[in-house]
Structure formats: structure tokens, C-alpha cells
Amino acid sequence: MGRKWNNIKEKKASKDANTSRVYAKFGVEIYVAAKKGEPDPESNRALKVVLERAKTYNVPKAIIDRALDKAKGSGDETYVELRYEGFGPNGSMIIVDALTNNVNRTAPEVRSAFNKNGGNMGVSGSVSYMFDPTAVIGLEGKTADEVMELLIEGDVDVRDVLEEDEAVIVYAEPDQFHAVQEALKNAGVSEFTVAELSMIPQTYVTLDADAQVQFEKLIDALEDLEDVQQVYHNVDFGD
User: Where is the TACO1/YebC-like second and third domain (predicted)?
Assistant: First the structure.
């Protein structure tokens, strides 16, 4: 699979280092997940996933608490989950997941980002069939063989366990997200470098230098949009 997850996360963290954008997006995601059920991660699995992701991005406790308090209190904002699909340079594929309280704002903004940066939006299903929903859990300090042994002992099925850079990345079915984490936590793992429910492309494409620059501008433009939570693609940037 080879996504180099730690490199991707570091790039995103660096990109957002001088702004509060990443924290604001997590605030919305936590609020929405908490409003779907109880604002308690032990009884709300969707909320637990978001909070685990937030930990890997070092989201401040104050941001998390504010979103949870809003969900517990009088917060009555209604957000809609939307997915857009499209194409970048040379047939590259992109999935954009958004949370919005203004549908009439989001679609034009996403379409404009595509059009202004060498891409174009497709219809629903035009891209997503080439991606697999996947739980991605990363950790350091162990080998892939050691992690696989721990998961077998914990009776957890996974798709793959790979060593990527200095981390071990576990790829599993989405419904195994919590099972993977619990098995590893029970074995003494206290910290995860990655904890994502992602969309993994079935195949990757490489772009020439000019197309890659254009593609990165497109991804940056999409990620900069207020309503966009996640952007997935099938471009291999290499190391």
C-alpha cells in the first residue's frame, strides 16, 4: 500500500502549523460525532474514532472539550456529510469529504477549486469505486512481525502490516479499527502515530514534475476550504 502515512501527516501538520484551521475542522468533526449519539466516546464509536485521530494531530484538549461541551449543551447547528469525487491532472483521482452547515456554499467552492487548478468534478461513484474504505493504525517501537503476532494473539483480523519508514502501519477493515487499537493497547502500546479511517486507492499513479506541482496546488486548494474535512487521492509522491 505504501502511503508513507507519517510523511503525509507531517506534511499536513506543517502546512497547518501557522493557522488554527486543522483544530477548527476537528472541532466541527467532534461536535458532529458527539451529536450523533452520546457525547461519551465509550458509548459512541464514531466519536471515539474522531478523538483517536485528534490525538495523533495533537489537537489541544481545550478544543476537544469545547466541542464536547457544545454538543452536550445548547448547540443546535445542523451539519450535512457530503462526498465529492473528481479528477486531477493526467487522470489522477480525488475524493473530497466535507461537513457543512451550508450545502449551497460547499459544492460551488469545491467545484471552483477543481476548475481553477487543472481538475474537474465527476459524478457520484466515478472515483470511489477505485478506493477501499480502510482503518489505518500506525505505531513506533515495534517490528511488523511483532505487531502481527500481537494482533493474532488478540484474535484480530487485518489486511496487512507493513513497515513504512520508521513506523509500523496496520491496514484493516473499518469495523476493526477499535479492535486493532484495543489489542495493541492491551499489549502495552500507549501511543499511535496514525489513527485514521481512510480511503485507500486500489492502484497508484505517478505524475511528471509539472503535473505534480499542479496536482499539489489542487489538493492544497481543496484542503484549504472551510467545509472540507478529508481529501483522498491516488497519486504516489514517492519518498
Answer: 79-235
Beta bridge partners, 235, equal: 205
Reported as half-sphere exposure (CB side, CA atoms, 13 A), residue 27 has a value of: 17
- Residue 233 belongs to what H/E stretch? strand 228-233
Cell output for 184? 495493541
State residue 171 phi and psi, 5-degree precision.
-110, 130
User: Residue 162 pairs with which residues in a beta bridge?
Assistant: 169
Nearest alpha-carbon partner for 170 in 207, 201, 134, 220: 134
Q: Name residue, grid cell 501538520.
A: 13
Q: In this structure, are residues 147 and 180 in contact, taking their beta carbons and an 8 Å threshold? A: no
Q: Which of 194, 198, 197 is nearest to 140 (CA)?
A: 194
- 1 pLDDT tier (thresholds 50, 70, 90): very low
> How far is Cα 157 from Cα 136, in angstroms, rounded to an integer?
13
pTM for the complete prediction?
0.90
Q: Report the chain's mean pLDDT, rounded to a whole number.
A: 89
* 60-69, 70-79, 85-94, 105-114: the lowest-pLDDT one: 70-79
Taking the C-alpha atoms of residue 225 and residue 237, their distance in angstroms, rounded to an integer, is 22
| Averaged pLDDT, 69-87 | 89
Q: Which domains does the chain have, with CATH numbers?
A: 1-130+202-239 (3.30.70.980), 131-201 (3.30.70.980)
Cβ neighbours of residue 209 closer than 8 Å, sequence gap 6 or more? none
Distance CA 202, CA 163 (A): 19
- Tell me the CB-side half-sphere exposure of residue 166, using CA atoms within 13 A: 3
Residue 129 CB coordination number (10 Å): 10
